Structure formats: structure tokens, C-alpha cells
Amino acid sequence: MPISEIAPLPAELQEWQEKIEKLAAGHGLDFFPTIFEMVPADRLNEIAAKGGFPVRYPHWRFGMEYEKLGKGYHYGLQKIYELVINNDPCYAYLMASNELVDQKLVMAHVYGHCDFFKCNAWFGHTNRKMMDQMANHGARIRRYMDEVGVEPVEEFIDACLSIEDLIDIHSPFIKRRADRHDPGERKDAPPKPARFQSSEYLDPFVNPKAELRRDDTEDTPKPHKIPEHPERDVMLFLLERAPLNAWQADVLSIIRDEAYYFAPQGQTKIMNEGWASYWHSKMMTTQIASAAEIVQFADHHSGTVASSGGSLNPYKLGIELFRDIEDRWNRGAYGKEYEECDDHAERQDWDRQLGGGRDKIFEVRRVHNDLTFIDSFLTLDFVREHKLFKFGYNPGTEYYEIETRAFPQVKSQLLVNLTNLGRPHISVVDGNYKNRGELYLEHAYTGVELQMNYAQDTLQNLHRLWTRPVHIATVIDEVETIVSFDGKSVTVDQGDEVESEEDD
Amino acid sequence: MPLDIERDQRRFKEIVRGRLRKNLRKYVTQGEMMGRKGKDLVSIPIPSLDVPRFKFGDNGAGGVGTGEGEEGQPVGKGGQPQGGPGEAGSDPGSEHFMEVDVSLDELAEILGDELELPRILPKGDASLQDEKSKYDSIRSTGPESLRHKKRTYLKALKRQISTGEYTPDDPRVVPIKSDKQYRSWSTIQHPEVNAVIIYVMDVSGSMTDDQKEIVRTEAFWIDTWLGSQYKGIEKRYIIHDAVAKEVDEHTFYHTRESGGTRISSAYKVCADLIEKDFPPADWNIYVFQFSDGDNWGEDNEKAFSELGDRILPHVNLYAYGQVESPYGSGEFLGRLKSRFGESHEAIVTSEIEDKDAIYESIKTFLGKGK
Predict the structure, then answer these.
(1) Which of A311, A386, A446 to probe by mutation at the B interface, max B CB count within 10 Å?
(2) In which residue ranges is the amino acid composition biased (Basic and acidic residues) (chain A) (predicted)?
(3) Which of A169, A3, A204 has the alpha carbon at shortest distance from A87?
């Protein structure tokens, strides 16, 4: 749909696009056909507010996002340079007010992203016709809004969005079970009598021991547990089990599809940005920028990869790690012999002239995500060189403070932050809790508590989907706790004392 | 193809207004929650307009940063570490509410709807004409100071080209008298209905900061509502203990005296002010008096005659708000009522026990629609 509305780029940019595309392909980048559209700032903000998809379904939060972006742009606080959509063909939007040197930089950057989308394994299962799919989602949701009204649909979307994190990001790769539960599988054996009432002296005759044992062991069907094993894909579980009518189920499935589409972008942010920055910087400095443009390029480039105020810039971390890998593999600075060398000078001058760096980074961009990327390639030398540190919250001073610069701690903190996209690990454990059809979730506590006010509101939204009481087991103040919402009030059960808060 | 973004934006604003309505009593009661932004905007915190999710608490998780610094050195204030670590995975820092900008007019409309305030029909119709000059036209005569150089040059150039005087090799353009163009103005008259709010407050020792806070909050809503009903509104402030004087807004809220209380002194200043600056034929006059109800007994009679003779006949509304104070006797309200009757057409009174009473008090004051 958007193709028809795309105006051709101005001739000069079109020429540059062709040139840059050839250069990118020449370096071995492998991308979908890429369509550039040049748009004014407010239009770019509109598209960005919709997550990159102008055709997306209507929802108030996009309006909120647009207000924020518009304000940020208006006050000069932020400006979106470019926007790339993972789709075949790839769509990329250029900001009309950018200067030529920026447009060239952005185009080179975009080809890096397009290559990453196409070649990185974690994007392997994403829908490459998402632009069409999003339009389709939009049409379906608009139709429901016409049928049942804007507000009920929008409020239902709100509830679905509350749990859009609760998907199993590995399920596109690992089939843990069939998607749809087949009710035919269940063998509902008639209930067996357990023990009959009898007076004591008759008991051995009325309830013969052999018979009781048989009940216990042989054909007594195990009580059917729902789900059989804890499930990460809470959205799917609700889709199959919650009492939803047809439009609600469809809306939930739409939100779930989009969540799966966007998940790999969250899993590969450092790599994806690092990769695109690596390529724009390589192409700009060696092939594209004229002598007159190089200073301006350097200025803007350093702006994007700058680290300010102690914060870690994913663009910077990504590009530096790719460069480090390329350099180490060129020199052969890896493997047992290198690792075991503890002479600092020798390690620095290490050069086996292997020249395998380029191949290595292409391999890395194909198979890794941020978590495995950091796990495999963040080294002690790198952490020292880039002055990374671990910080933590000090309740005494109410400040985040530098805790340590020790390599193992820094690395493990980074890995913790990247695990499950930095979100709590939550599964459905029981869909028939207390044998009353209540929903019981479990948070795998790893030392960091849930934010309680958010958790309570999320439970309320979950209740709108499940319509029966919902619970989450977690840990608060080192005490195992169940937070529940029964439709009226939130209760926090820590075993001995029960706190109840009326919901207004 | 039109984008839905305008629709989304509209929905967002509707939802914001809905939240505002729902929590209006809270905002009215706790005026200090709101921040003033420029002249016409206030920013209001709206609870949880983001989508709630299961997420880690703000202060639990740490992160990784980069740069110089010793162990123990702070890198960011609690709840708001500086951006970066969030980028790399965790997402600390976002609050459970957001600030939205609302125009005062919009706020007044919500207030009006929720409190069911009647619209005010200004008295004295459009008796006052306001004149404005606007430089919006061009004439061929006028003072040199208003000469329009560009237009003059263009006219001279046209003339020279049409008469063949212009030679591109020697591009001199010399205006003659008939080329000269001058800016000119027209006078626009528009009817203006004027209104003035006169605030009177007792600043004697028995009025504490708590009481003044209440006055300030009430005044904010009164300003907002009346401001939405009139174009251009004047505000005057009178403080008094045993003596009274007119002051500016800042002084009004920040003065504390220790003297006794003589309300008549304030009425006199108020009446003089009306006489001098606000001829009642042209002005809609509102007087809001706040006090803890203390007055020197022998002063009451004098005060009431001043009020009855020189103020009440001229005002749209005289509102007396009695703020409960641990020190004040609170007698004045009863005296006022017995003197002027329970239902004097221009008088409206309200007792404000605490912040929670502000909401009803505003409704009482403004509910008359005067």
C-alpha cells in the first residue's frame, strides 16, 4: 500500500542511493530491496509514533507518542534521523530537512540494518510482509471498532498490551508443544470411589486394602493439570483458555503477532545498531564522504555514538565490539594459546596475520543476539579500554553509584540486563488455581523485585482478560508473596498477614 | 493517504480529559500539584497513562555504564539513572504518571462541567469599546518614519522599467515623490466586557500558612473560571489587619502581620478602589473576601455599613469565605448573615474547614452564575 504513495527521491539522492547500494553489496552486505522515502519532520514523527508502520491500527498511545516526539523535536531535544522497517522490501524514511551528508550517512546506515534484518538468525521467523500484515491488522481492528464501539476495543487493547511482554521469545525456534490444545486427547475416566464410610470392624471388608491400592496406583488418572508445564507464552495460554468472544480473541492474537514481530529488535539492539554504525562509518570515511564533508560526518557520527554522563550507548558498544572482534580475528588474538598468555605486552602485539576478521564479524552478525554476543565477545581488555563499570542503587544516598570495575561483575551485570530483554521471567503455572478456575502466574525471582504498583495494575488488566481472580507469586522483602486481584481489590499475601487494598 | 495519527492524538487527549475529570476533586484540593507553564498552560500529572506491565522495580536493578569515576561515585539520582543503562536492556526510570499540558480554558471548561457551574451573563452589555490600531495597509502619503522602503523601491523600479529609464548596466533606482509608499493603520473597535476580581484577605496573626494555602488554591480556580467567562480580567489584592492596603499578588500571599483585625478598613479600601478605578456601569465586579472570621467587635457595625452602602450595590458578587483557623473565633460569618439576611442577592458565603472543603466552596461561590 505505501509503495504507491512514495514519491521518487530527488535525482541527486537517487544517484547516491544507487551508488551506496552498490558499495554496500560490494562489501558483502546482503539485503532486501530497499525503498527510501523522504518525509518532513512531522510526518516522520507520525510514522515513528506508529512504530514505523503508518498503516497500523488506531490506538491512543500512538497519539501520546506523537505528542512526545513532536514536543521533543519542537524544543530541539531530539530528532529522528532515519527509520528502517524490517520488511521485504525494506522501507526506510529519510528526514527531508537533513543535509546531503546526513542523507548519505543515513542511507549507508540503513543498508547495514537491512542486511542485519535479512541475515540475522533471530529475525529468521519474522513476517517479511509485515507492512501488509499491519494494514490487515488495522483493517480488522477498525472493523471491530465500527461494530462494538471505539472505547471497548481500545480498552481491550490496553489490557492486551499489558501482557505483550509475556511471550516466549524462543518459541519460534523451539516447539515446546502444539500451538492448539486438542481436547480429544483427554481421557476422562469415570471417577473412582475412594473410601466408603463404614464402621471400624467392617472396614476391611467394605474397603479392601488391595482395592484401595489399586485406586492409588493403576488407572487412577492423574488430575489433569492446566497447563501441564509452566508456560512462558501467557498470551497464547489466554488465547486458548480465556473466555473471549470472537473479536476479543482476534484482537489478542493481533497484539501477540506484533509482539513476536518486534521481539527480535529488542533482542539485538546493540548488535543491530553496532552493525549499521560499523558500515556507515566504514563506507562514509573510505568511499562516500567528500573531503569537505568528512568533518561534518565526524561530528554527526560522534554525536550518535557518544556516551554521556556515564551512560552506555548501545550504538557505541556495538560498533566497538564489532571492531574489536574484527581486529582480534585478523591478528588471531583468540583461542587457547592467546587466552593463556598473561604477558600484557605480548598480548597487545599479538599478530598471527590470519586476516579472518571480516569473515568473523559476518558470522557473528548471522548467529548471535545481544546476550550471546556479549557473552562470547566481551573481554577483560575491552572492559578496561572502554572504562566500563557496574553501577547499583544505594538506598542510603538514593543514588545510583559505581559499584565496581571488576570484569566478571561488569559482564554478568550486562548479561543480567539483557536476559529476557531485561524483563522479569513470568510463567503461567496454573489455570485452575484452588480448583476454582483462577489464574496463577509465577515470577522467577532472581534478586530483583517487581515494581509493585505496576504489578497490581497489570493484574487488573489480566483480570479483564481472564475474568476470574488472578494471582502472581513473587518475592517481596525476601518473603514469598502472592499478589492477587479478584475483580474488586488487590491483596498481598505474605503467609502470616494479609494486606488488602480497596481499589477505587 | 491520511494517517490516523490525528485520531490517535484526539483519543489521547480525550482520555487525558477523562482522567482529569475523574480526579478533579483531587486537583482542586491540591492545587500545588499543578505547575504553571507560561501564561495559559498548566501541567498536570495524570496517573498511569502508560500501559502497566510486570517490570522490575526502579531501584532494584543495577546496570552498566562507561566513563571515569571511582567506586562509590554517584552516576544518577534514584529512579532516574541517566538514560543509558536502560538502553542496554533494563528500563528503569519511567514514572507511574505523566505530565500533560492543559490550557486554562480547557481546565475551566472541565471545572464548569463537573461543578455544573452556570455560564455568566455579563452585565452592562458591550458598553465599553476597546480600540486597537493595526498596521495593515499601504498609502501613498504619510510621515517619512513610516515609509515602506521595499514597496517604494518596487514602485520606482516598475516606473523606470515602463518608461525605459532603467538600464541593467547601470541599475540605479531613484524614487520620486509619486513612488513613495507608506505604511498605514486602521483602527479596529471591538466591544469588550470588563471584569475585575478584588481579593481581600485578613493577614492578621490568626491566619496561618495553612489558611493562606487554602485561599491561594481557591483563588486559582476562581481566576480560572472567571477568566474563561470574560475576555481580559483585572485582579486587585487587598490585605488587612487593623489597617488595610492594596498590594500586588506576591505580597498578598506572603504577608503576615501580627496586629488585630478591623475588616472595615479593608472594605473602605475596596470601596474606594471601585469608586476610583472601576465605574460599576462599565465593570463586572467580583469581591472575594477570605478571613478566619475574627473581627474586633466594635468594628462590625462600621464594616457592615461600608459593605452595604458602598460595595454591595455595585458588585456582581460579594463572596465571603471563612477559613477555619485554630485561633480565629469565626464569628464574622454569623454576623454577616444576620445583618444581610440568609439570601441577599449579591452575597454568597462559605465555610471552608480544610482543603477538602475547597471543592464545595468553589461550587457555592460560582454556582450563582453571576
Answers:
(1) A311
(2) 179-190, 210-228
(3) A3
- Which residue range is the domain that position A259 belongs to? 131-173+229-266
Whose grid coordinates read 491483596?
A491
Domain match, A78 and A136 both: no
Residues of B whose CB is below 8 A from A457: 48, 52
How confident is residue A190, by pLDDT bands cut at 50, 70 and 90? very low
Nearest CA in chain B to A138: B4
Question: Contact B56/A448, CB-based, under 8 Å?
Answer: yes
B255: confidence class by pLDDT, cuts 50, 70, 90: confident
- The whole-number average pLDDT for the span A72-79 is 75
Query: Which residues lie below 8 Å from residue A54, measured CB to CB, with a gap of 6+?
Result: A2, A46, A47, B1, B3
B2 contact A CB<8A: no
Write the pLDDT tens digit of every residue in A446-497. 888 999 989 999 999 999 999 999 999 999 988 999 999 999 999 999 887 5
Do A31 and A114 fall into the same domain?
A: yes
A343 within a domain of the structure (yes/no): yes
Residues A46/A73, Cβ–Cβ less than 8 Å: no
Q: For residue B106, give the H/E element and its range.
A: helix B104-115
Nearest CA in chain B to A383: B66
Q: Which domains does chain B have, with CATH numbers?
A: 3-49+97-115 (no CATH), 128-190 (no CATH), 193-366 (3.40.50.410)
Amino acid identity for residue B70 in this structure: E
- Tell whether B55 is within 8 A of chain A (Cβ): yes
Evaluate whether residue A146 is within a structural domain.
yes
Same domain, A318 and A339: yes
Chain A nearest CA to B73, separation (Å): 5
Write the ipTM.
0.84
Judge if A381 and A357 occupy the same domain.
yes
Strand ranges across the sheet with A90-95: A34-39, A90-95, A82-85
Task: State whether A15 and A112 are in the same domain.
Answer: yes
Nearest-by-Cβ selection for A421 from B8, B12, B89: B89
Number of domains in chain A: 4
Closest among A274, A277, A270, A273 to A371, alpha carbons compared: A270
Cα separation, A94 vs A102, whole angstroms: 9
Q: Which of A2, A391, A421 sits opposite B75 (nearest CB)?
A: A391
Contact call for B52 and A458, based on CB within 8 A: yes
Average pLDDT over chain A, rounded to an integer: 88
User: Are residues A60 and B54, on separate chains, in Cβ contact within 8 Å?
Assistant: no
